[in-house]
Amino acid sequence: MSNDKVFTYFNLRGRGEPIRLALHASKTAFKEVQMDYKEMKQKSGTEEVPFGQLPVYTDEHGTLCQMDAILRHVGRIGGLYGESSFTTADLGKIDMVLGGVEDCRKAYTNLIYQDKLSDEAKAKYKKGHLDTESMTERTGGAHFQYLENMLARSTSIGSSGFFVSEKLSIADIQLFDLVDLHLRPALFPEDMKAFPKLMALHAKISGHPGVAEYLGSEARPIKINGNEFG
Q1: Neighbours of 230 (CB within 10 A)
Q2: Helix residue ranges per DSSP H, the chain
Q3: Strand order of the sheet with strand 56-59?
Q4: Which helix (H) or strand (E) holds 59?
Q5: What is the DSSP letter of 49?
Q6: N or C: which end of the chain has fewer CB within 10 A?
Q7: Phi and psi for 138 in degrees, rounded to 5?
Q8: What whole-number distance in Å separates Cα of residue 174 and Cα of residue 197?
Q9: Interval 176-185: pLDDT, tens
Q10: CA 143 – CA 66 distance, rounded (Å)
Q11: Contact 56, 111 (CB under 8 A)
């Protein structure tokens, strides 16, 4: 098995972006390989593309797919996750955030790909996932106020600025990416100001040396999604 670390994804940010951010934050050297949709489907079910989906990550330990599985793996190796870096309680909180972010990401994905970011869909999305009044309604677990409140309750956020402990974790990476998606002009930049803890975390992660270097580099894809919306 080669010691090379290879990250394979489309030439866009999408579900590959949190993995790129984690790799750069941990200063992990890796090679990125871009694959198009046709090639991905041709290789579906193979060792190279096990679930017929991207992203895929390969290193000396083998090949992994699924965003959060890859994120946990690179997090363990890079000190952003795992028992050697965090307590059992902290790991539970990190996993909880990953689940909450995934619920929000699914709602976002529907807005972009199914509803094509129509004005009507944006208004419905804002009401259901950003407006405080909808917190107690059916949200599918996807509401920014839930994440904001979790940050406010964190005992460490006041001193370190990170979600758990005194250092960066993959929870911070996922929260950063989710907020970053919604700060774009086509989405909800003004509405996001209602979540000061999330905004402060976004600013902190933006300034992290490894992340900041990546954000300002040509390595970051320009295209956000797999269509022209957003």
Answers
A1: 17
A2: 17-25, 37-42, 67-78, 88-109, 119-129, 144-153, 170-182, 196-206, 209-215
A3: 31-34, 6-9, 56-59, 62-65
A4: strand 56-59
A5: B
A6: N
A7: -70, 115
A8: 14
A9: 999 999 999 9
A10: 23
A11: no
